[in-house]
């Protein structure tokens, strides 16, 4: 029988120990794959980093941004009772639309009273104007009459004085006539007595005596006539003197009338000044009417702008005071205030495009543009601006408000949904 000698079994070497060449080969087979993956990841990271760097160098963004707009506080301009309330919270209204009606009765009464006072003032002014015209005409007529009377009276004085001088001349002539007639009478008397004696002595004829007697009688009659003429001339002198006195009195009266006319003219000027006062009263009354009309118009509270009603605090029947807040109107005009760090503004300019993410509407892509950059940091507009001149100083990066306006096409359908206070994230394309 054949015997076989078995060789003792040897332990199998562990993988990678008994066959190092094979393990080395396996490693060589696996390393290229891992290396490829690592390389791909590195390339992806590099590309991603490059893209991030490109984006970061082209855009500036901040989450310190919000939508804002003009909020108009609507207050009562007059006090009274609210009779009508024509709007509700969040309602859209147009500029000029009636919102609240205040009881106008008291203001209507004030307006009617002011109109009545204005009408009375105008009537009084008309009366004063009529008096001025009438008084001016009368004063002018009186002045003309007085001037004419003065001229006529002066002419009368001249005529009276001339007549007086003529009558005085007549007196002188009458006196001369008397002297002549006396001389003739004396001569005729002497001839009469002489012829009378001659007749008695039969030295003259009776006829001569009669003629002497007749001549004496004629001379005596002429003397009496001259004396009567003298008396009449004296009377005419007295009359002429009285005429002069009367004419001078007429001058005095005419001058007094002229003074009266001048006083009437002065009174007219005074009345004109009164007219100025009355016209001022009319203007005051008209201003009171205008003020009453304005106060009455304030009973109609209208929307100052187009927008939406918010924070309404008034109700029908409520007694309100002047200046009391009634509601707010949020204007349809809205924009974004983004507070960028000052280090982000080096490339930011007005007019650059902005991509906007609205927290409330993340699926909507909204665009805009930079409208303006604030002239000072937000801290400078604080109630107590920082004072770095004293104490320890810690440098803090300041934030500058930037106004961004929406592109109207990109917010179509969102106009009534966008509200002041909403948070946004704007990205400004500063690379352009």
The span between the termini is 102 Å
How large, in whole angstroms, is the Cα Rg? Answer: 65 Å
Largest sheet: 9 strands, antiparallel
What order do the helices and strands follow?
HEEEEEHHEEEEEEEE
CATH class of the largest domain: Mainly Alpha
Q: Which fold name is given in CATH as the topology of the largest domain?
A: Helix Hairpins
Basic shape: rod-shaped
The CATH superfamily of the largest domain is known as Helix Hairpins
Total discrete domains: 2
Unreliable stretches covering 5 or more consecutive residues: 1-18
CATH structural architecture of the largest domain: Orthogonal Bundle
Tally of separate helices: 3
3D structure, described in words:
- This protein is α+β, with helices and mostly antiparallel strands.
- It has 2 domains: 60-103 and 305-429, Efflux pump adaptor protein, beta barrel domain (Elongation Factor Tu (Ef-tu), domain 3), CATH 2.40.30.170; 107-297, Helix Hairpins (Orthogonal Bundle).
- It contains 3 helices and 13 strands; from the N terminus they run αβββββααββββββββ.
- It has helices at 20-58, 105-200, 206-297, and strands spanning 59-61, 65-75, 80-85, 92-93, 98-102, 300-302, 307-310, 319-320, 325-341, 353-358, 361-373, 399-406, 424-429.
- Strands 1, 2, 4, 7, 9, 10, 11, 12 and 13 form a 9-stranded antiparallel β-sheet that branches. The protein has a 4-stranded antiparallel β-sheet with strand order 6-5-3-8, with no helix packed on it.
- Strand 10 (353-358) and strand 11 (361-373) form a beta hairpin.
- The radius of gyration is 65 Å and the shape is rod-shaped.
- The two termini are 102 Å apart.
């Amino acid at each position: 029988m054949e015997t076989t000698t078995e060789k003792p079994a040897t332990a199998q070497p562990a993988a990678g120990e008994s066959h190092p060449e094979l393990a080395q080969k396996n490693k060589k087979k696996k390393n290229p794959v891992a290396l490829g993956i690592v390389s791909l990841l590195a390339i992806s990271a590099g590309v991603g980093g490059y893209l991030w760097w490109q984006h970061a160098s082209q855009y500036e963004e901040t989450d310190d941004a919000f939508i804002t707009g003009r909020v108009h506080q609507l207050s009562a301009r007059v006090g009274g009772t609210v009779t009508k309330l024509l709007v509700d919270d969040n309602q859209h209204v147009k500029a000029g639309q009636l919102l609240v009606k205040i009881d106008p009765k008291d203001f209507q009464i004030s307006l009617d009273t002011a109109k009545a006072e204005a009408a009375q003032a105008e009537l009084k002014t008309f009366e004063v104007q009529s008096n001025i015209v009438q008084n001016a005409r009368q004063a002018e007529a009186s002045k003309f009459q007085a001037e004419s009377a003065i001229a006529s009276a002066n002419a009368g004085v001249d005529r009276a004085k001339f007549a007086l001088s003529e009558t005085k001349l007549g007196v002188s002539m009458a006196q001369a006539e008397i002297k002549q007639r006396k001389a003739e009478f004396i001569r005729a008397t002497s001839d009469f007595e002489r012829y009378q004696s001659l007749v008695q002595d039969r030295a003259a004829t009776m006829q001569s005596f009669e003629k002497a007697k007749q001549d004496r009688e004629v001379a005596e009659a002429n003397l009496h006539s001259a004396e009567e003429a003298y008396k009449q001339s004296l009377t005419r002198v007295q009359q002429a003197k009285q005429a002069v006195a009367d004419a001078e009195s007429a001058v005095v009266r005419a001058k007094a009338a002229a003074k009266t006319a001048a006083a009437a003219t002065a009174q007219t000027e005074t009345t004109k000044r009164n007219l100025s006062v009355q016209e001022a009263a009319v203007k005051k009354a008209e201003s009171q009417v205008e003020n009453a009309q304005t106060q009455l118009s304030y009973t109609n509270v209208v929307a100052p702008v187009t927008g939406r009603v918010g924070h309404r605090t008034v109700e029908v029947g409520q007694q309100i005071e002047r200046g009391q807040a009634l509601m707010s109107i949020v204007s349809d005009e809205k924009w974004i205030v983004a507070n960028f760090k000052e280090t982000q503004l080096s490339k930011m300019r007005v007019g650059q495009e902005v991509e906007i993410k609205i927290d409330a509407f993340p699926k909507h892509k909204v665009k805009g543009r930079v409208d303006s950059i604030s002239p000072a940091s937000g801290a400078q507009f604080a109630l107590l601006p920082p004072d770095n001149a004293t104490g320890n100083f810690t440098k803090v990066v300041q934030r500058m408000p930037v106004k961004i306006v929406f592109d109207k096409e990109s917010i179509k359908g969102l106009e009534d949904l966008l509200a002041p206070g909403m948070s946004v994230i704007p990205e400004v394309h500063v690379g352009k």
